[in-house]
Amino acid sequence: xxxxxxxxxxxxxxxxxxxxxxxxxxxxxxxxxxxxxxxxxxxxxxxxxxxxxxxxxxxxxxxxxxxxxxxxxxxxxxxxxxxxxxxxxxxxxxxxxxxxxxxxxxxxxxxxxxxxxxxxxxxxxxxxxxxxxxxxxxxxxxxxxxxxxxxxxxxxxxxxxxxxxxxxxxxxxxxxxxxxxxxxxxxxxxxxxxxxxxxxxxxxx
Amino acid sequence: xxxxxxxxxxxxxxxxxxxxxxxxxxxxxxxxxxxxxxxxxxxxxxxxxxxxxxxxxxxxxxxxxxxxxxxxxxxxxxxxxxxxxxxxxxxxxxxxxxxxxxxxxxxxxxxxxxxxxxxxxxxxxxxxxxxxxxxxxxxxxxxxxxxxxxxxxxxxxxxxxxxxxxxxxxxxxxxxxxxxxxxxxxxxxxxxxxxxxxxxxxxxxxxxxxxxxxxxxxxxxxxxxxxxxxxxxxxxxxxxxxxxxxxxxxxxxxxxxxxxxxxxxxxxxxxxxxxxxxxxxxxxxxxxxxxxxxxxxxxxxxxxxxxxxxxxxxxxxxxxxxxxxxxxxxxxxxxxxxxxxxxxxxxxxxxxxxxxxxxxxxxxxxxxxxxxxxxxxxxxxxxxxxxxxxxxxxxxxxxxxxxxxxxxxxxxxxxxxxxxxxxxxxxxxxxxxxxxxxxxxxxxxxxxxxxxxxxxxxxxxxxxxxxxxxxxxxxxxxxxxxxxxxxxxxxxxxxxxxxxxxxxxxxxxxxxxxxxxxxxxxxxxxxxxxxxxxx
Lengths: 205, 535
Fold this sequence. Notes:
heterodimer, A: alpha+beta, Chemotaxis protein chec, eight-stranded antiparallel sheet, 6 helices, 51% helix, 29% strand, B: alpha/beta, Beta-Lactamase, Helix Hairpins, Heat Shock Protein 90, 4 domains, five-stranded mixed sheet, 19 strands, disordered C terminus
């Protein structure tokens, strides 16, 4: 069972926060509204336990933006928003009422682009840290319950895997929307990442 | 597989032919080396024009709009998607959308790296036209907003109706309670004093209920377009004096001062004297009802410009809240519809006032500086084109005869004209028919004394009935100019009827024409002046 030390956790938060800062700047520029992302909190879970952990915080149908990344480190990156959060984020960012996501292609597209920006920023930060080039798949939006989304991740690959669960709080126009980033990594990829985080932490001090 | 197809060439051709979206490929310097047919067709830039040129050179707006960062990201291995809502489009392309004319094409796009053996060797850009989707979504949004609004209106109307029904049952029961209570007293009390008091109260309450039922019937007649105006020349001053006389006792009992002023030598208005009296009575009694002891009600009738009269009724009473002011003439509306309200009534009086005044081609209005600061109601009515005042019309009793009356029928529909000729012939009239307004004008000009009443259809080709009566009312010959005229208007169309009266007709009958109604109208119009010609 892999765990993060307090020091590693702090370092990950700091790194992710750099990515969040970049993403918030891109979103602000894109929408003309000041968008802030709260300082993230990070936890590491074995993939089997992720379902329980997520279902404690998001219920019912969720919108997930999914990108597969590959290269020296590879895995799955997802932004998960509950349906009302997704609609609210779309309304706040576009100034126009959202219809139910199932019939609002524009809203689905907007959520996909937001996920794309956030995931790119965070994975880009990791890529820089590891000094490797990470390649991405085209982001894909799915609306389903948490179990179905995790199921599709389990089918794709076997073997022990871990997920970094990152709490992402958007703040804009006096409102708050909560989402979760989930970065699923194989043991080998996670090992490389933690090793690089340790090195970065040493270099900082 | 024995002969595998040359995949690269086939793929390239496939990409080139993709018919439903744009696709272009650049090298790492962003020099274009694939430009598919869709792009050529939509941008008007042929493949040969695009290939070999740097992307930002082809489209300088791309770096201006910050997309150079996106391409740099793609060259570093990133994928970026562009939603229509945030970017509207990647390439500026005009689109001719059916029904919406030329618009700028709405696009979604994505920019990805082109990989070859683990190395980024260029970029791929995919563009999709989503103009129609955007239009559909906008319509959907509008429809949802519109249906939301319609639902709110319907709910409000249904609430008003509920309020009205509650008020109605209350208003009907109140006088009945008094009638029944005093009837019971009459059974046991037989002193002359008690009996006289009981009968007074029973009569008063029965009257008030009668008035309520009449208001309801009037409203229902107006709503179904069945209210008939018995039109004539009306001296509005006389109408005002008569109506006010009825209200004065109530005002005296409440210690409300009533003052009436009336400009001298006012021209008549064209309309129904009884209905106009109902209007004035409603406004005056309303003013008294809402004015407390020691207050005053001032009624003023004067000219308003050359062709209108204006009746103003000013009180020092309770006034009207600003947010209710726009609704005072609405049906079923009362400022205080709560069960604890102090004033009775159905909320129909002012609605009837507006309907009747508008049927006469007039306007109504209300002003108030707010609660406790009094209210002013006014109506304006158009002055009659015909300046004579008729004596009040007696209700026709007994069979109508048009013996000796000459009628000129104007209708461009042969069957309708023939029918009216036959119908009026039965009543003994001397009837002639012409098929156009021009023919009617010619006939009146030639033989002005041969026509006692003109009956004209309103909807006629070339010159319609409105134009005809305006021409007649300005003819040089006085007999022709003053000829009494009846308009035949489409059933249930209030606008037509109002227009007919304003244009200069004395009255109107609705289609389909009822022979009895038409004959009575003609008889009323010529009453008292059947020419010696008939002898």
